[in-house]
Each structure stands twice: as C-alpha cells, then as structure tokens.
Amino acid sequence: MMYIFGLVALVLAAGMVVLFAMLGELSARVGPASAPQVESSVWVLTDVALGEVPSPLPAGLSGLNGLDRLDGRGPSMLLVLSTQCRSCTSVGEQLRDNPELADPATIGVVVTTGEASQGAAFIQRYNLGSIPNHVDLDGAWMRTQFGVNFSPTALVFRDGVLVSALGFTSVPALRAAVLDAAERVITGDEPVVARG
Amino acid sequence: MLPSSAVCAALVLGAVLLSSGIAKLTVARAAVSAVAEVLPGIGAGAAAIVRVVAVVEVLAAVALAVPPARVAGLATAVILGFAFAGAGGLGLLRKASKDCGCFGRAGGKPLGARAVGVGLLIAAAAALALTQGGNGPDWIGDVPLNLSLTAALTVLFTGWLYRDLIRDLVRPPRAQSASAKGASA
After folding, report:
1. The dihedral formed by the CA atoms of A144, A145, A150 and A155, expressed in degrees to the nearest 10
2. Is B185 within 8 Å of A149 when comparing Cβ atoms?
3. Which among A38, A134, A154, B100 would be 20 to 30 A from B59, CA to CA?
C-alpha cells in the first residue's frame, strides 16, 4: 500500500512538471496573456513631462536624430527598457532578431536597472551596443527628468523636445505608429501619432 | 558529509533531474535550439540528444529515489553534471546567444558559465554522495518514503523554477495586467 502511495505521489509530481512545462512554453510562445495585439500594442502614456529637453544628454545617446540636434530630421525614439521587465526582454529579443528595426539614427535605448553590470549585460545580450544606449541606474534620469516610471516606454523626440510618450510591446508596431507615420507626414499631411 | 546528508543530496538531485527530464520530454524546443547552436551541423541530431539526455535524467532520478539503485543513480548524475558543464563550456566557446532551455524551461540564459557552474555543482554533489555510498539511516532507506520525498521535492523545485509564472497566475487580474504590460522603470 505504501509503495502505491509513493508511486502515486511521484506520478502526480511528474504530472505537475508536465503541466508547468506546457504552461511555460505556452507563455513563452504567446507572450503576456493580456498583451494587446499589433493594432493596440502602442498606447499613449500620460503624466510624462512633455516639452522637456533632455539636459544633460548622456554621452551614449549622442548622435540620435532629433534628440540632441535641432535639425528637423526627427522624430527619434528612446526606448526605456528595464532589466526586471518581461515585456522589455521581449522588446530586446525583437531588436536583436530584427536588426533592421534598430536604426541607430532614429532609435536609442535607455536601460533602467539597479546595477550597472546588469544593464551592461542586458545591452550585450540583446546586441544593443550598435545603437545609442545609456544605462540609467535605478531609472533616476528617466524618473526625475521625464517622470517616466513605466517600461517598456518609448519617448518620442522632435527637435530635441519630448513630444510624446508611448507604452508598447511591439517594436514594428511602434515604428509604424511613430517613424513611418512621420514619413507620411513629410510626404503628405497625415498627423503623427497621438500625443500625450 | 554524513550519510544522511548524502541521502538528502541524492533526493534533491533526484528531484532536480526528474523535473528537468520530464520537462524536456514535454517541451524540448528551447533545449534543442540551444544544443543546435553549440553543435553546429548536427541538424536533427540535436532533438535526439535532448531526448536521450531527458530519458537518462528521468531514469537517474528514479534510481536516486530507490535506495537499492541509488549508487547507479549517483554515478549517472555525475556523468550528467559533467555533460551539462561541457555544454556550458561549448556555449562559452561559441558565444551562445539562444536561451538554454535549462531544466526544460522555456527562457533562461544562454549556455555558458552558469551551465558550467550548475553542471559541476551537480557532479560534485553526486560524487560526494557517492563516496558515502548514498545510504542513510534506516528510516530514510524506506522505498515508499524516498519516493514520496522525491515527489515533494520535485513539486517544490518545479514551483521555484516556474515562480514567475505562478506569480502571474495568482496575482489579481488588475495587477496581472499591469505586470504583463511592463514593470516599473
């Protein structure tokens, strides 16, 4: 009888492993359960310091169009990613696996983290070293200058001024909403993405 | 190491290997991808390697839970530990970037230093237990009790392994939604 109890316990434990393995795989394949699809994967964030001019600009972010130059070549985006955020790792994977999405002239990355080494590891892991990047310890720069307490967040700059803050989960959808829309503005008269 | 601690080490190793092996048999995608990355040119052989390792892990776990077969299980665990360390070493050499699928879990870090460390830890723990014969006091030499303890430890280890998933599942819907979108910067 005790043998049967031991075996049943082992089989039940194995069944639990199977269940969690499948749940984990499902979670990895579909992403967060409530993550919006492409059409709704970009949303406007409020309570952000729009109109703010980044100063001083971290050295790692120089060279980004529209951020440090009033050259009218914007907009450009700063993607704020946290090392502790699951959606942020998904964004990192999108940038790593689709290098064409990470145009160093228009996209930079700010990695918020509690430890500089973790931020550097994040940048290395997702091959973000080729685009302007900055490790923001404890998110202090983002929080104090722009009031950003959420990640992933995209800060849209034009002529050196923060004009919009967007939450997002999909980099292609974000680009379509911001950069491609801006191209259409240049060639036509379609408005850029809604501003917060 | 006292004999009883050798038994404890064997039971913990058994739980880890059981969880890892069954998870790999259930979902092998990440592990196969990681093996294919560090063994380029192996093609479909990567899936076979992962399946074989998973079966060996389960067999070793069962052996570790059954005192008469414990020595064989410990010896197998030593070999598996070195195999994991070797895979980590290959990952370091080839600068692996894909998730390792370690313990059968989707995600995780690429094969590298961590896999080397964990592999050597498994090998060392199994070898130390092996030197003690893997036999403890009579009360823990009971087969049903060992099976039950292995099952309990497997549940605990699996719960720890998938703690993020569990946290998302048990969190109230409102908070879960916020977590799904992101985290505090």
Report:
1. -170
2. yes
3. B100
- The DSSP line for A146-159 is I---EESEEEEEET
Span A30-55, average pLDDT: 66
pLDDT band at A147 (very low <50, low <70, confident <90, very high): confident
Q: Is the pTM of this model over 0.95?
A: no
Number of other residues whose CB lies within 10 A of the CB of residue B82 = 16
Report how far residue A117's alpha carbon sits from residue A135's, in angstroms, rounded to the nearest whole number: 9
Give the position of tokens 């918020």. A112
Average pLDDT (B84-100) is: 87
B151's tokens: 């099952």
User: Tell me, what DSSP letter sits at residue A178?
Assistant: I
CB contacts under 8 A, A 110-139 vs B, are: 112, 125, 139
Question: Rg of chain A's alpha carbons, rounded to an integer?
Answer: 21
Beta-carbon separation of A34 and B105 below 8 A: no
Asked whether B51 and B28 are in contact (CB, 8 A), the reply is: yes
pLDDT of residue B179: 39
Residues of A in contact with B162 (CB under 8 A): 20, 23-24
Residues forming beta bridges with residue B88, ordered by sequence position: none
HSE toward the beta carbon, residue A39, CA cutoff 13 A: 0
Q: Which amino acid is at A99?
A: P
List alpha helices for B39-69, DSSP H: 45-65
Residue entry with tokens 């313990």: B103
Report the candidate in B158, B139, B60, B125 with the shortest Cα–Cα distance to residue A15: B158
User: Interface pTM (ipTM) of the complex?
Assistant: 0.79
Residue whose pair of structure tokens reads 């060996």 in the numeric block: B56
Could you tell me the pLDDT band of residue B69, with boundaries at 50, 70 and 90? confident
A194: DSSP letter: P
Q: Is A24 in Cβ contact with B165 (below 8 Å)? A: yes
